[in-house]
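Box 3.1 — From sequence to structure: NAD kinase
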Amino acid sequence: MPHFKTVGLVMRPGSHHSDETLGQVLDILSRHEIDIILDERILAAEIGCISDGCDVSRLPRAALETLGRRCDMVIVIGGDGSMLGAARTLCLTGTPVLGINRGRVGFLTDISTADLELRLEEILSGTYVAEHRFLLDAFIMREGRVVSCAHALNDVVLHSGQVARMVEFTLFIDDQFVYRQRADGLIVATPTGSTAYALSAGGPMLHPSLEAMVLVPMFPHVLSNRPLVIGAASKVSLRIEHGPDPAPQLSCDGQTRLVLQPGDRIDIIRKPQRLVLLHPQSHDYFDSCRSKLGWSSSTQECP
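Predicted structure (token representation):
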């Protein structure tokens, strides 16, 4: 019996360069007699892909939420952006997610097309490493009630919405006053997101196993302001004091944007549900850092 009986496939719409990879995945799954459900955004006419063992046009399709409920695993073909979009939904059902990299960096989608067949065969047989990554919930409070909410695997970012314009905000951690700040914004990142936007803004890298968040100011008006690492169980609250016109914004994973008003409070907390991320047995976080961030690659054995 296969370790996974039903597998969902997700691919970014219009991603023509992933056709070949999709066909290869379909062939492997078909050989194992695994039931396949496609993300409803994948159109047979668009991808033009009919694999040797599977006619794409005949495969059932479903929304991402349904894939999470019906599948034992979901495979995301694309870059980290594709994974971020899928992860925010699939974490709600705890469905394991596997990423095949067709993007540029691929911290989350870490299986390369070069060894796709080998790694996918291993995972289908039950040989893999499962990681549980936490996400963030962001709630916008206005006049004492929640007016908007969004979720993020990488980061929640308060920003002015304009180039070279500042927003003034007050930061509280667990309802304790930290500081009042004028800056281009503030990045609140998970360990997963610490290697993304937060890293480019000068923040530290957090190992994925850590239960922590990092707060990284963006071009603060006070030079002594530095990134701050806090526990993941903490509640981060931001109160908008003054902002540019048009209004400042809150961005989640760079894919969801919410408009703010002076006086709004943003509460950011750890999400109860977690993303179950699958890796090959040979997965090595520091090897990923070396290859994707250009670290020294000389091999050294532990003394």
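Summary of the box: DSSP finds seven helices and 17 strands in the chain.
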